[in-house]
Write a structure and sequence with these properties.
This protein is mostly helical. It contains 17 helices and no strands. The longest helix is centred in the middle third of the chain and has 33 residues, at about 130-160. It is a multi-pass membrane protein.
Amino acid sequence: MTAPIMTERRVSIIGAMLVAIGPVSMALYTPAMTELVRHFGSTESVIKLTLTLYFGGFACAQLVAGPLSDALGRRPVTIAFMGLYCVASLAAMLSPSVEVLMGARFVQGIGASVGVAISRALVRDLFTDDQSSRIMNLIGIILALGPALAPSIGGLMLPLFGWRSIFLLMTAFGIGIIAVVIFALKETVVPDRSRLNFPALGRTYKMLLTNKHFISASLVMGGALGAIYAQATFLPFILMNEVGLSPAQFGVSMLAQSGSFFAASLICRKLMGRYGANALVAPGLVFVALGSIGTLTLLMWSPSFLHVMIPVGVYSFGIAFVMPAMSTAALAPFGRAAGAAASLLGFIQMGSGLLVGSLGALMGNAVIAMGTLIPIMGATACLSFVWYRKLGPAVAKPLPDQVQGQRGPLTAQSTPVTAPDK
């Protein structure tokens, strides 16, 4: 028996840092959105578009980042994308107009997209089953700390140093992650440039999209976790414009969301040892359903701080129970294309947030948008889990261009290199 080249703890910490860069970049930015409306003499709809473009780059680029890492290796692809993120962050900081800011945010999303795809692929490269779910849970615990603190940090930095300082801090985060990748992340796949075959990549994605286990598990994740990203386009305008919070107060108020997720992740970690990760999904979706019902009441009564944030906190509490098992379930049958599967899972997850956030922007009224669209996402997660359960156990699937154990041009076996972690 050989041990993985990296321990659970190291993979969890590195994975959490990679996953967190996307939500942190979003959470740091949201307190500044109302200030940016005033600074550029723009409108709420245009500033919302800067967040939508970030989501667009973040969601779509994952479809490229994961397969690139299958072919070129996890480390070089991560460094390249994070370098792009740092350049875009500096461009956003120096933006002379809202148009430049919009472009910089789109490119920033492309750079940040590598985090979700690579972190899940790393876990799938080295671990499976309950061990994988345990790491996903620990990633969730660490991940909760960044978005929990980021709005508060952004809200406090805004009056002290101005909105440009927020993007300077993002640049520092990106440089820090590049340093961690260089000095702490070991390569987990054997690079094979012959896998840069786009027709084969298309066939791999077609195979994933026609796999009912993958789609049902991904829709559970999209409806549950995707709501976090959709809410980011609604909450700043509801809490600051409708409820009347200042940017600093808004930042602190977001602890109700991330703090709830963090507490649930700790509870989930205890329960996983006794009941297993799969048994916790259904209870988690009960909380998602309750949070959805609470959010639906925004259509009936005027928003207040508690009226908005209690349902948001309940919804987030449920997500922590859903994420470990369903992330593992979506990727489990696809070890030979872990990067592609992780990328498509991330695209569905973030893409659902992008779609719902864009629909909300078209609706114009943030309160009506949140009260209508977030409950739909919760219902999607619950119904998709019912579908997933009806399908029964998933089995490993052969990939396109794979014939009797021979490696195809894109989907060759991503064999983890194993050795003691020193």
